[in-house]
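Usage example:
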Amino acid sequence: MVKLICRVLGLSVCAALGYAETPPLMPWPASAQFPAGELEITAGFSISAAGAGAADPRVKAAVARTYARLARQTGMPIQPRLVATPNVAALRVIVELADHRPPQQPGDNERYALDIAEGGARLSADRPLGVLRGLETFLQLVHQTPASSAGTMSGFSVPFAEIRDEPRFPWRGLSLDVSRHFIPVDGIKRTIDGLAAVKLNVLHWHLSDDQGFRVESKLYPRLQQYGSDGLFYTQTEIRDVVAYARDRGIRIVPEFDVPGHASSWLPGYPSLGSRPGPFQLVRTTGDPAGVLDPTKESTYRFLTAFFGEMVRLFPDPYFHIGGDEVNPREWNNEPRIRAFMHSHRLADAKQLQAYFNRRLEKILAQYGKHMVGWDEILQPDLSKTVMIQSWRGQKSLAEAAREGYKGVLSAGYYLDLMQPASQHYAVDPLKGDTANLTPEETKLILGGEAAMWEELATAETLDAKLWPRLAAIAERFWSPDSVTDRASMYGRLAATSRWLEWLGLTHRSNLDLIRRRLAGSLPVAPLAAFAELLEPVKGYERHRAGWGASTAFNRLVDAIPPESDAAREFNDAVDRYLAAPNPAAADSLRKQLAAWIQTAAAVRPLLEGNSLLSEDLPIADAVTALARAGTDALASRSVSAPPDWKAHAQSTIKDASAHRASLLVAIAPAIQKLVEAAPN
Amino acid sequence: MVKLICRVLGLSVCAALGYAETPPLMPWPASAQFPAGELEITAGFSISAAGAGAADPRVKAAVARTYARLARQTGMPIQPRLVATPNVAALRVIVELADHRPPQQPGDNERYALDIAEGGARLSADRPLGVLRGLETFLQLVHQTPASSAGTMSGFSVPFAEIRDEPRFPWRGLSLDVSRHFIPVDGIKRTIDGLAAVKLNVLHWHLSDDQGFRVESKLYPRLQQYGSDGLFYTQTEIRDVVAYARDRGIRIVPEFDVPGHASSWLPGYPSLGSRPGPFQLVRTTGDPAGVLDPTKESTYRFLTAFFGEMVRLFPDPYFHIGGDEVNPREWNNEPRIRAFMHSHRLADAKQLQAYFNRRLEKILAQYGKHMVGWDEILQPDLSKTVMIQSWRGQKSLAEAAREGYKGVLSAGYYLDLMQPASQHYAVDPLKGDTANLTPEETKLILGGEAAMWEELATAETLDAKLWPRLAAIAERFWSPDSVTDRASMYGRLAATSRWLEWLGLTHRSNLDLIRRRLAGSLPVAPLAAFAELLEPVKGYERHRAGWGASTAFNRLVDAIPPESDAAREFNDAVDRYLAAPNPAAADSLRKQLAAWIQTAAAVRPLLEGNSLLSEDLPIADAVTALARAGTDALASRSVSAPPDWKAHAQSTIKDASAHRASLLVAIAPAIQKLVEAAPN
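Running the assembly step on the lines above writes:
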């Protein structure tokens, strides 16, 4: 029973029940038990592979990577054994069957079992893909040998384990915009490493949008030449990335967003546009109006040829055509297009887009591709092979499923909005409007995709916008729907964030570098401590302040993670205190607040006279004022406070909660609770 | 006059003289003045190039890199302008002449002038190589705009400057062993980036040694197959690295160490050995005995063919044959070899090696290569085209020069010995025995090479063993011999260390990762604070404890830099205090010691029960004891201390100075000074 509870709730409960430390696996497996004991990792660690799938290139590459990653995670000189004998190998991999025929499909078998016991570990899987997933689990289990396990010498081990695992959803992805800010190939590969590590399996590559066209076309080279700032992927690079992803069990679904979000196509090929040209690439904020002309046959000839070129680069059976946010005026204002709508009995722009989509669907079907699009493409008469990606919510997903369309959920998983991991974690593709679907309809909900739009993110900050929050979303898509404990999630997420460093992700290190850059020649520690109390403003507020190709993303708001751990922990401590006030807890809160007053004082010399940081001086003042208000609130319970202290504190909180320099003081809500709950 | 002093002494003096902040250039230029003023770096920053050398591929590549590096150093979206017009460009590059004919030679013109003033910067150079050096200087000057410079908005600028610069020595290198531990290509490239950044110009690649043969030979593939653990550079990789280095103005001088240090040649080709085979690759400590047989013609046929293959990979005019540490017994014990010596009138092993070297020198001359070797090759009858690399000291260098041989100094620059930067900085190729050479002989001293042997370093820790100390050695080789101020060097070295991070060097970040790995799931901060007080044992002590291919380098000693900044700063503070004791200084020292007692207490929970860290528990005790002894010494001046306090303190220091876990408590010498100087 204990083991059953551990399986679902993980870390905190198991620790309370006397299990030394539940491994910080993320996503949590379908079933996991951890009998007492540790298997030591030594420099002579070796991996053998057997079974019909053992010679598969993906298995071989994954085993080779596992040696290298074990070496990084332990600092031991672990190297591939040229011949690993099954009887001696520390990890025996058994793959029952050869790989599915490529390309990888949603629903390809990812199941595995991992048994770690005295004498060795055994990873068995039906297919090579399961081996890839299981090896990630094994690597997440590697830790410093607990003090309680005597007799190990190397310092590193994996706990004994009995794990049976497979995903809840077959489509678990990240949609990544590389148009607004370009992400070089090394960033894409690093992201793929991260996706594989948390058992996601789709990189949905948003390759074109208004502000940039990012793929080399040889047929239509003016697409990238006139439609980008010179930063795009060559076809060689695309092939390299697709192969890299396949090696790691990640599908690459390309998106070319049409007919809207297509401004970047028009400088090179103005005749595609609804309006007459010429057009210039606009790399700034706002909603550029470039929309393709769906009335000309030449548009379809162009797309037929262009898609024909692209399907040779992208082997995935799915092909994303965007389809979102078409501005109807772009069509309605053109007499030529209105005449076409009239003669084709298309009542409005929506119907015209449906016509366009049906044409595209047929083109892609010729190439053997399933068309994917955002919610808006859901219009009558579309083939049932089309898939819907919902950015609007479970409602449109449910509607699509009722009409027989497959779908994935992205609403609720927009990482660019700077929301906490817990908020995304609480969103479930099968809760809300999708909860009441029939079993047959439910099967059409293939999973979900986190989305990262790059208006405010750059290659430098991308990792910090994705990680570790994306791991929590990955758990939502992989783990049983009963895995929902917020405290367990945050505990494992912190460990996952540390662990991801061994993959080379830069979500922590790059923020540190940016803070050092801000600090200039002064010590960075006071800035780092101050930054821990802050969060970026949420939602689209900062977008509205404007952005563009010449905007520098090098301010304090760019040097912090989306979520303040310190503020969350303080908030939890305040909740516990208010539920059961006691002097020890009050004292602990008071000390924390006093430390923050010090933090705000210590950072001032760094902020003053620094042209990038001086905008943050009022925030240091706000931290001080909030910490004092919290201190007053705690004092009010024991000491008689001045009659107007609370009004003063409330005014302080209001003022301190103003958004400055695109930053929030993340401790403000908890202080407000303290003040509200205090006696007058 | 002030400017003249600044030029020589840099930071500290200039600051005292009222110059806001002397730029932390390293190496310090031959001549530099900094008039008041700043040139802003904006997102629209552009670089133009003009002159006969402007179209040179090295210039073009360096300009492209400069854009990318400016973007990293500022966080601004600085991108290459497709057309940079000279009149508008923020940095105008003028290259008078086309490039020297490749390959790069020692003595190729590296001179440049950099003028930064109102309206823009101008970098002029005779040759492309000077542009490369000057761009590094420009990038080192980029900083946060000082508060005193109003009117700049972007936050980053370069100070106005008038710099005239050229190197003191034409040969400024790093000798890097990749045999004992292999360094993958990305590590080599990172190292080359670092060399170029501090204006070094030679990577001497020690490609073979007893424990590993690291180059793919297609003629003799058993060299790498039987002579390595599978880790070696393919010929494609070698070509890639050579081109990468050339792009950055770095020569690659390959070394194949013969006839000693050649054990790794013999498993694949036993007939090359002096002893009868068979041989097995031994990847452990000690002095493997494999020596080539210099008596067989087949040895020379092999080397002729092998060198012929290698000279096609390495275009540099110099080719290093090692030649060090031949064990004479390996030859003297073989009757066949003794007979050869007798018949050829070679009195001893030394003469036999001289015979071997003369044969090699002829082979290499056929290929148009100058032979380089360690001191030992200096024997009668060698061609004067041969160059000597001295690992023994200035004496052998001076002897070589008197006999007409060129030479470079490596003695005093062994980075693997974990000595402080100041110790290497004080060594000068033209001081000591070389000081009294004639001007003609002096010209034969081409410069120096730092050396990094890899017995105890791995790909993970390499950067931390090289940097930032290598920058101080680079300054010794580049800057005028009058640039010797230790305080200025350390001030600029700290800034250089931060700055090198923007190149992607991992000397700080990887140590942080290793400490996090050691800390496991506990917060790393207490371990980091504790580690600041420690240094690795110096010299060969740790080597003697044994090492090999299966040794893990993942202990605390592997997670710290060679030199403790905190200990050095404390030592300087103690020196100042003892020179002029006063209550404020005493109080400051006392507070520091009290903080360290806290540090030692705070780290204990991390060390206890941690199988990798528990060996460091006595060191935490030693820190506590030393801090108490220092506190007693300070107290003894004002309070009457117990009669035996000093004897007790001295005994504490002696005990605390014991070497444990290959670590030293770096604050011990300063504490000892405090105690010795205190009244009884």
